[in-house]
Amino acid sequence: MSLPAVLAPLRHKQYRWLFGSQLVSNLGDWLDYLALIILVTVVWHRGVEGMAALVIAMAVPSILLAPVAGVLADRLAPRTAMVACDLARCVTVAALVLAPNLYAVVGLVVVRDAFATLFTPAQQIAVRLTVPAESLLSASSLSQLVMQGSKIVGPALGGLLVAAFGNPHPVFLVDAGSFLLSALLLLPLRAARETRADEASAAAGDGHGADEADGPVEAASSGMLHEAREGLRHLTSRPVLATAVGGFSVLLFLAVLFDTLAPLVLRQLGFDARLIGVAMGVIGLGTVVGSVLLGQFAERVRPLALMGGGAALCGLLCGAVGAAVSSGATGAVWVWLLVLFGFGFALAAVIVPFPVILQTETPIEYLGRVVATATALQSLGAVTGPLAAAALAAWLGLGTTPILAGAGLLALGAFLAVNARRHDPQPAPQAEAAPEAVAPQRRAAEPAG
User: Euclidean distance between the first and final Cα of the chain, in Å?
Assistant: First the structure.
Protein backbone atom coordinates (compact mmCIF):
# COMPACT_ATOMS: atom_id res chain seq x y z
CA MET A 1 0.00 0.00 0.00
CA SER A 2 1.42 3.39 -1.01
CA LEU A 3 2.05 6.03 1.63
CA PRO A 4 0.14 9.35 1.61
CA ALA A 5 2.09 12.13 -0.09
CA VAL A 6 2.94 13.81 3.21
CA LEU A 7 4.66 10.60 4.36
CA ALA A 8 6.50 9.98 1.09
CA PRO A 9 9.95 10.93 2.49
CA LEU A 10 9.66 8.07 4.99
CA ARG A 11 10.05 5.61 2.12
CA HIS A 12 13.77 6.39 2.25
CA LYS A 13 15.56 4.48 4.98
CA GLN A 14 18.22 7.14 5.52
CA TYR A 15 15.61 9.85 5.97
CA ARG A 16 13.76 7.73 8.54
CA TRP A 17 16.84 7.86 10.78
CA LEU A 18 17.01 11.61 10.31
CA PHE A 19 13.31 12.02 11.05
CA GLY A 20 13.55 9.87 14.19
CA SER A 21 16.39 12.02 15.44
CA GLN A 22 14.37 15.20 14.96
CA LEU A 23 11.34 13.69 16.65
CA VAL A 24 13.32 12.91 19.79
CA SER A 25 15.37 16.10 19.98
CA ASN A 26 12.49 18.51 19.26
CA LEU A 27 10.43 17.02 22.08
CA GLY A 28 13.41 17.35 24.39
CA ASP A 29 13.91 20.99 23.36
CA TRP A 30 10.45 21.97 24.57
CA LEU A 31 10.88 20.03 27.80
CA ASP A 32 14.10 21.97 28.32
CA TYR A 33 12.49 25.32 27.48
CA LEU A 34 9.75 24.88 30.07
CA ALA A 35 12.25 23.71 32.69
CA LEU A 36 14.40 26.82 32.12
CA ILE A 37 11.40 29.11 32.51
CA ILE A 38 10.37 27.43 35.76
CA LEU A 39 13.91 27.47 37.13
CA VAL A 40 14.46 31.16 36.38
CA THR A 41 11.03 32.62 37.13
CA VAL A 42 9.61 30.29 39.80
CA VAL A 43 12.58 28.80 41.65
CA TRP A 44 14.90 31.81 41.46
CA HIS A 45 12.20 34.53 41.15
CA ARG A 46 14.16 36.44 38.51
CA GLY A 47 11.02 37.54 36.62
CA VAL A 48 11.22 39.71 33.51
CA GLU A 49 14.97 40.27 33.54
CA GLY A 50 15.58 36.54 33.82
CA MET A 51 13.33 35.80 30.85
CA ALA A 52 14.96 38.57 28.84
CA ALA A 53 18.40 37.10 29.56
CA LEU A 54 17.22 33.67 28.41
CA VAL A 55 15.75 35.02 25.17
CA ILE A 56 18.95 36.91 24.35
CA ALA A 57 21.12 33.90 25.22
CA MET A 58 19.09 31.72 22.85
CA ALA A 59 19.30 34.17 19.94
CA VAL A 60 22.81 35.67 20.14
CA PRO A 61 24.78 32.53 19.10
CA SER A 62 22.81 32.23 15.86
CA ILE A 63 23.22 35.92 15.04
CA LEU A 64 26.94 36.12 15.79
CA LEU A 65 28.14 32.69 14.71
CA ALA A 66 26.09 32.22 11.51
CA PRO A 67 28.99 32.94 9.09
CA VAL A 68 31.33 30.48 10.83
CA ALA A 69 28.62 27.85 11.33
CA GLY A 70 27.56 28.06 7.69
CA VAL A 71 31.09 27.57 6.39
CA LEU A 72 31.71 24.65 8.76
CA ALA A 73 28.42 23.08 7.72
CA ASP A 74 29.53 23.25 4.10
CA ARG A 75 32.92 21.72 4.92
CA LEU A 76 32.05 18.90 7.31
CA ALA A 77 30.21 15.63 6.79
CA PRO A 78 26.57 16.12 7.85
CA ARG A 79 26.50 13.04 10.06
CA THR A 80 29.75 14.00 11.79
CA ALA A 81 28.59 17.56 12.45
CA MET A 82 25.17 16.54 13.73
CA VAL A 83 26.40 13.76 16.02
CA ALA A 84 29.12 15.99 17.47
CA CYS A 85 26.61 18.79 18.10
CA ASP A 86 24.14 16.42 19.73
CA LEU A 87 26.78 15.00 22.06
CA ALA A 88 28.02 18.48 22.98
CA ARG A 89 24.47 19.61 23.71
CA CYS A 90 23.87 16.48 25.78
CA VAL A 91 26.76 17.40 28.07
CA THR A 92 25.81 21.09 28.20
CA VAL A 93 22.15 20.47 29.06
CA ALA A 94 23.08 17.92 31.73
CA ALA A 95 25.35 20.57 33.28
CA LEU A 96 22.31 22.80 33.84
CA VAL A 97 21.48 20.56 36.80
CA LEU A 98 24.58 21.96 38.55
CA ALA A 99 24.09 25.62 37.54
CA PRO A 100 24.09 27.71 40.75
CA ASN A 101 22.66 30.95 39.37
CA LEU A 102 21.25 32.80 36.36
CA TYR A 103 24.69 33.72 35.02
CA ALA A 104 25.72 30.07 34.83
CA VAL A 105 22.46 29.14 33.13
CA VAL A 106 22.86 31.91 30.55
CA GLY A 107 26.42 30.79 29.80
CA LEU A 108 25.38 27.16 29.33
CA VAL A 109 22.45 28.16 27.12
CA VAL A 110 24.82 30.21 24.93
CA VAL A 111 27.13 27.21 24.54
CA ARG A 112 24.22 24.85 23.84
CA ASP A 113 22.76 27.11 21.17
CA ALA A 114 26.16 27.74 19.61
CA PHE A 115 26.20 24.04 18.71
CA ALA A 116 22.60 24.31 17.53
CA THR A 117 23.74 27.03 15.12
CA LEU A 118 25.92 24.45 13.37
CA PHE A 119 23.44 21.59 13.69
CA THR A 120 20.65 23.39 11.80
CA PRO A 121 22.44 23.92 8.46
CA ALA A 122 23.98 20.44 8.76
CA GLN A 123 20.53 18.91 9.12
CA GLN A 124 19.23 20.70 6.04
CA ILE A 125 22.15 19.38 4.00
CA ALA A 126 21.34 15.89 5.27
CA VAL A 127 17.72 16.33 4.17
CA ARG A 128 18.88 17.38 0.71
CA LEU A 129 21.01 14.23 0.46
CA THR A 130 18.36 11.79 1.67
CA VAL A 131 15.17 13.10 0.03
CA PRO A 132 14.50 13.48 -3.72
CA ALA A 133 13.47 16.90 -5.00
CA GLU A 134 9.83 15.95 -5.48
CA SER A 135 9.52 15.04 -1.77
CA LEU A 136 11.18 18.15 -0.28
CA LEU A 137 7.87 19.86 0.48
CA SER A 138 6.57 16.71 2.18
CA ALA A 139 9.79 16.51 4.20
CA SER A 140 9.35 20.14 5.25
CA SER A 141 5.75 19.40 6.23
CA LEU A 142 6.85 16.47 8.37
CA SER A 143 9.50 18.63 10.01
CA GLN A 144 6.94 21.30 10.88
CA LEU A 145 4.52 18.64 12.09
CA VAL A 146 7.16 17.45 14.54
CA MET A 147 8.17 20.96 15.61
CA GLN A 148 4.64 22.24 16.15
CA GLY A 149 3.47 19.02 17.74
CA SER A 150 6.41 19.22 20.15
CA LYS A 151 5.30 22.71 21.15
CA ILE A 152 1.98 21.24 22.23
CA VAL A 153 3.14 17.98 23.79
CA GLY A 154 6.50 19.09 25.20
CA PRO A 155 5.36 21.75 27.68
CA ALA A 156 2.52 19.52 28.90
CA LEU A 157 4.88 16.60 29.45
CA GLY A 158 7.44 18.91 31.04
CA GLY A 159 4.83 20.24 33.44
CA LEU A 160 3.96 16.69 34.48
CA LEU A 161 7.63 15.86 35.07
CA VAL A 162 8.21 19.00 37.14
CA ALA A 163 5.10 18.23 39.20
CA ALA A 164 6.19 14.62 39.69
CA PHE A 165 9.75 15.46 40.80
CA GLY A 166 9.03 18.77 42.50
CA ASN A 167 11.76 20.68 40.63
CA PRO A 168 12.93 21.20 37.03
CA HIS A 169 16.35 19.54 37.30
CA PRO A 170 15.24 16.02 36.28
CA VAL A 171 13.78 17.54 33.11
CA PHE A 172 17.27 18.71 32.09
CA LEU A 173 18.50 15.13 32.43
CA VAL A 174 15.63 13.90 30.26
CA ASP A 175 16.53 16.49 27.63
CA ALA A 176 20.19 15.47 27.80
CA GLY A 177 19.07 11.90 27.20
CA SER A 178 17.08 13.02 24.17
CA PHE A 179 20.22 14.52 22.61
CA LEU A 180 22.12 11.30 23.28
CA LEU A 181 19.36 9.23 21.68
CA SER A 182 19.26 11.63 18.74
CA ALA A 183 23.00 11.14 18.19
CA LEU A 184 22.57 7.37 18.27
CA LEU A 185 19.77 7.54 15.71
CA LEU A 186 22.03 9.56 13.40
CA LEU A 187 24.88 7.03 13.46
CA PRO A 188 23.32 4.75 10.78
CA LEU A 189 23.39 7.62 8.26
CA ARG A 190 25.91 6.62 5.63
CA ALA A 191 28.66 8.96 4.47
CA ALA A 192 29.31 8.58 0.74
CA ARG A 193 31.62 11.13 -0.89
CA GLU A 194 30.22 10.42 -4.33
CA THR A 195 26.77 11.74 -3.35
CA ARG A 196 27.91 15.32 -3.03
CA ALA A 197 30.10 14.94 -6.09
CA ASP A 198 27.07 13.79 -8.08
CA GLU A 199 25.05 16.73 -6.74
CA ALA A 200 27.77 19.20 -7.72
CA SER A 201 28.10 17.69 -11.18
CA ALA A 202 24.34 17.83 -11.70
CA ALA A 203 24.30 21.47 -10.59
CA ALA A 204 27.10 22.38 -13.01
CA GLY A 205 25.27 20.74 -15.90
CA ASP A 206 21.84 22.02 -15.02
CA GLY A 207 22.31 25.74 -15.33
CA HIS A 208 23.42 26.83 -11.87
CA GLY A 209 26.48 28.37 -13.41
CA ALA A 210 30.12 27.54 -13.64
CA ASP A 211 31.14 30.19 -11.14
CA GLU A 212 28.80 28.67 -8.54
CA ALA A 213 30.11 25.15 -9.12
CA ASP A 214 33.70 26.40 -8.82
CA GLY A 215 33.02 28.70 -5.85
CA PRO A 216 33.71 26.25 -3.01
CA VAL A 217 36.98 25.11 -4.65
CA GLU A 218 38.19 28.70 -4.82
CA ALA A 219 36.86 29.44 -1.35
CA ALA A 220 38.61 26.46 0.21
CA SER A 221 41.96 28.08 -0.60
CA SER A 222 40.93 31.56 0.50
CA GLY A 223 39.69 31.02 4.03
CA MET A 224 36.43 31.12 5.92
CA LEU A 225 35.75 34.81 5.35
CA HIS A 226 35.88 34.37 1.60
CA GLU A 227 33.62 31.30 1.82
CA ALA A 228 31.10 33.24 3.89
CA ARG A 229 31.09 36.03 1.31
CA GLU A 230 30.58 33.52 -1.49
CA GLY A 231 27.54 32.12 0.28
CA LEU A 232 26.10 35.60 0.79
CA ARG A 233 26.79 36.46 -2.86
CA HIS A 234 24.85 33.41 -3.96
CA LEU A 235 21.93 34.30 -1.68
CA THR A 236 21.67 37.86 -3.00
CA SER A 237 22.13 36.82 -6.64
CA ARG A 238 19.06 34.56 -6.75
CA PRO A 239 15.88 36.71 -6.79
CA VAL A 240 13.55 34.03 -5.45
CA LEU A 241 15.99 33.03 -2.71
CA ALA A 242 16.67 36.61 -1.60
CA THR A 243 12.95 37.43 -1.65
CA ALA A 244 12.05 34.34 0.38
CA VAL A 245 14.77 34.86 3.02
CA GLY A 246 14.02 38.56 3.40
CA GLY A 247 10.26 38.02 3.36
CA PHE A 248 10.38 35.22 5.91
CA SER A 249 12.52 37.32 8.25
CA VAL A 250 10.07 40.22 8.03
CA LEU A 251 7.13 37.89 8.57
CA LEU A 252 8.71 36.40 11.68
CA PHE A 253 9.32 39.87 13.09
CA LEU A 254 5.69 40.89 12.47
CA ALA A 255 4.37 37.59 13.84
CA VAL A 256 6.45 38.08 17.00
CA LEU A 257 4.84 41.52 17.43
CA PHE A 258 1.47 39.77 17.63
CA ASP A 259 2.72 36.79 19.63
CA THR A 260 4.34 39.00 22.29
CA LEU A 261 1.11 40.87 22.95
CA ALA A 262 -1.19 37.86 22.50
CA PRO A 263 -1.78 37.16 26.24
CA LEU A 264 -2.75 40.81 26.87
CA VAL A 265 -4.85 40.98 23.70
CA LEU A 266 -6.69 37.78 24.57
CA ARG A 267 -7.47 39.09 28.05
CA GLN A 268 -9.17 42.07 26.37
CA LEU A 269 -11.23 39.63 24.29
CA GLY A 270 -12.55 37.81 27.36
CA PHE A 271 -10.03 34.96 27.80
CA ASP A 272 -9.10 33.96 31.33
CA ALA A 273 -5.71 32.50 32.28
CA ARG A 274 -6.78 28.93 31.52
CA LEU A 275 -8.17 29.81 28.09
CA ILE A 276 -5.05 31.77 27.16
CA GLY A 277 -3.09 28.53 27.39
CA VAL A 278 -5.72 26.80 25.27
CA ALA A 279 -5.52 29.61 22.71
CA MET A 280 -1.76 29.18 22.33
CA GLY A 281 -2.28 25.47 21.82
CA VAL A 282 -4.95 26.15 19.19
CA ILE A 283 -2.48 28.21 17.15
CA GLY A 284 -0.05 25.29 17.25
CA LEU A 285 -2.83 22.88 16.29
CA GLY A 286 -3.68 25.04 13.28
CA THR A 287 -0.06 24.92 12.16
CA VAL A 288 0.02 21.13 12.57
CA VAL A 289 -3.14 20.67 10.48
CA GLY A 290 -1.85 23.11 7.86
CA SER A 291 1.49 21.31 7.66
CA VAL A 292 -0.20 17.94 7.09
CA LEU A 293 -2.50 19.27 4.37
CA LEU A 294 0.30 21.12 2.62
CA GLY A 295 2.46 18.03 2.60
CA GLN A 296 -0.39 16.05 1.09
CA PHE A 297 -1.73 18.42 -1.55
CA ALA A 298 0.63 21.35 -2.26
CA GLU A 299 3.41 19.77 -4.37
CA ARG A 300 2.34 21.65 -7.50
CA VAL A 301 1.96 25.08 -5.88
CA ARG A 302 4.82 27.55 -6.32
CA PRO A 303 6.43 27.93 -2.89
CA LEU A 304 6.79 31.71 -3.06
CA ALA A 305 3.14 32.12 -4.04
CA LEU A 306 2.14 29.87 -1.16
CA MET A 307 4.19 32.01 1.24
CA GLY A 308 2.47 35.13 -0.09
CA GLY A 309 -1.00 33.71 0.41
CA GLY A 310 -0.16 32.56 3.93
CA ALA A 311 1.30 35.93 4.89
CA ALA A 312 -1.77 37.77 3.56
CA LEU A 313 -4.18 35.53 5.49
CA CYS A 314 -2.11 35.95 8.67
CA GLY A 315 -2.36 39.71 8.14
CA LEU A 316 -6.15 39.68 7.76
CA LEU A 317 -6.66 37.62 10.91
CA CYS A 318 -4.11 39.58 12.93
CA GLY A 319 -5.73 42.87 11.88
CA ALA A 320 -9.19 41.54 12.79
CA VAL A 321 -8.02 40.76 16.32
CA GLY A 322 -6.46 44.21 16.68
CA ALA A 323 -9.60 45.92 15.34
CA ALA A 324 -11.75 44.04 17.86
CA VAL A 325 -9.55 45.14 20.75
CA SER A 326 -9.44 48.75 19.55
CA SER A 327 -13.22 48.91 19.22
CA GLY A 328 -13.90 47.22 22.54
CA ALA A 329 -15.68 44.27 20.90
CA THR A 330 -15.44 40.85 22.51
CA GLY A 331 -17.65 38.16 20.99
CA ALA A 332 -17.83 34.46 21.76
CA VAL A 333 -14.58 32.81 22.78
CA TRP A 334 -15.04 30.02 20.24
CA VAL A 335 -15.05 32.59 17.43
CA TRP A 336 -11.64 33.86 18.46
CA LEU A 337 -10.35 30.32 18.86
CA LEU A 338 -11.31 29.72 15.22
CA VAL A 339 -9.46 32.90 14.25
CA LEU A 340 -6.37 31.73 16.11
CA PHE A 341 -6.62 28.30 14.51
CA GLY A 342 -6.79 30.03 11.14
CA PHE A 343 -3.72 32.11 12.02
CA GLY A 344 -1.76 28.95 12.78
CA PHE A 345 -3.05 27.31 9.60
CA ALA A 346 -1.99 30.31 7.51
CA LEU A 347 1.39 30.36 9.22
CA ALA A 348 1.99 26.81 7.98
CA ALA A 349 1.59 28.09 4.41
CA VAL A 350 4.67 30.24 5.05
CA ILE A 351 6.93 28.08 7.19
CA VAL A 352 6.48 24.84 5.20
CA PRO A 353 7.47 26.07 1.71
CA PHE A 354 10.28 28.33 2.97
CA PRO A 355 12.84 25.51 3.50
CA VAL A 356 11.88 24.13 0.09
CA ILE A 357 12.95 27.40 -1.53
CA LEU A 358 16.23 27.31 0.38
CA GLN A 359 16.84 23.78 -0.87
CA THR A 360 15.77 24.19 -4.49
CA GLU A 361 17.41 27.57 -5.09
CA THR A 362 20.77 26.67 -3.55
CA PRO A 363 23.42 24.30 -4.90
CA ILE A 364 24.46 21.92 -2.18
CA GLU A 365 27.93 23.45 -1.91
CA TYR A 366 26.38 26.69 -0.58
CA LEU A 367 23.46 25.25 1.39
CA GLY A 368 25.04 25.41 4.85
CA ARG A 369 25.93 29.08 4.50
CA VAL A 370 22.53 30.05 3.11
CA VAL A 371 20.64 28.20 5.85
CA ALA A 372 22.86 29.68 8.58
CA THR A 373 22.32 33.21 7.24
CA ALA A 374 18.56 32.73 7.06
CA THR A 375 18.51 31.37 10.61
CA ALA A 376 20.52 34.35 11.88
CA LEU A 377 18.03 36.79 10.35
CA GLN A 378 15.17 34.89 11.97
CA SER A 379 16.90 35.05 15.35
CA LEU A 380 17.37 38.78 14.93
CA GLY A 381 13.62 39.19 14.36
CA ALA A 382 12.86 37.01 17.37
CA VAL A 383 14.97 39.28 19.59
CA THR A 384 13.85 42.66 18.26
CA GLY A 385 10.18 41.73 17.89
CA PRO A 386 9.29 41.71 21.61
CA LEU A 387 11.12 45.01 22.17
CA ALA A 388 9.28 46.63 19.26
CA ALA A 389 5.94 45.18 20.44
CA ALA A 390 6.35 46.65 23.91
CA ALA A 391 7.37 50.06 22.52
CA LEU A 392 4.52 50.20 19.98
CA ALA A 393 1.91 49.06 22.50
CA ALA A 394 3.02 51.76 24.94
CA TRP A 395 3.03 54.41 22.21
CA LEU A 396 0.03 53.51 20.05
CA GLY A 397 -2.05 51.22 22.23
CA LEU A 398 -2.67 47.50 22.63
CA GLY A 399 -5.12 47.20 19.73
CA THR A 400 -3.23 49.34 17.24
CA THR A 401 -0.09 47.22 17.28
CA PRO A 402 -1.81 44.05 15.92
CA ILE A 403 -3.49 46.22 13.28
CA LEU A 404 -0.10 47.54 12.15
CA ALA A 405 1.36 44.03 12.19
CA GLY A 406 -1.62 42.82 10.14
CA ALA A 407 -1.16 45.61 7.61
CA GLY A 408 2.52 44.75 7.32
CA LEU A 409 1.71 41.07 6.77
CA LEU A 410 -0.83 41.96 4.07
CA ALA A 411 1.71 44.14 2.28
CA LEU A 412 4.30 41.37 2.59
CA GLY A 413 1.86 38.84 1.14
CA ALA A 414 1.22 41.07 -1.86
CA PHE A 415 4.96 41.59 -2.36
CA LEU A 416 5.65 37.84 -2.28
CA ALA A 417 2.76 37.12 -4.65
CA VAL A 418 4.03 39.66 -7.19
CA ASN A 419 7.53 38.21 -7.03
CA ALA A 420 6.15 34.69 -7.37
CA ARG A 421 4.67 35.70 -10.72
CA ARG A 422 7.93 37.29 -11.86
CA HIS A 423 10.28 34.53 -10.71
CA ASP A 424 9.20 30.92 -10.91
CA PRO A 425 11.52 28.81 -8.68
CA GLN A 426 13.31 26.12 -10.63
CA PRO A 427 13.56 22.55 -9.30
CA ALA A 428 16.69 21.64 -7.42
CA PRO A 429 19.35 19.64 -9.28
CA GLN A 430 19.16 16.07 -8.09
CA ALA A 431 21.56 13.18 -8.41
CA GLU A 432 20.25 10.34 -10.55
CA ALA A 433 20.96 7.75 -7.91
CA ALA A 434 18.45 7.23 -5.11
CA PRO A 435 19.43 9.50 -2.21
CA GLU A 436 20.26 6.85 0.35
CA ALA A 437 23.50 8.35 1.66
CA VAL A 438 24.60 11.40 3.58
CA ALA A 439 27.83 12.66 2.02
CA PRO A 440 30.72 14.09 3.96
CA GLN A 441 31.98 16.68 1.44
CA ARG A 442 32.68 20.10 2.88
CA ARG A 443 29.81 20.23 5.25
CA ALA A 444 26.35 19.59 6.61
CA ALA A 445 23.18 21.10 8.12
CA GLU A 446 20.28 20.83 10.70
CA PRO A 447 16.04 22.35 12.57
CA ALA A 448 14.27 24.13 14.37
CA GLY A 449 14.17 24.44 16.05
Answer: 32
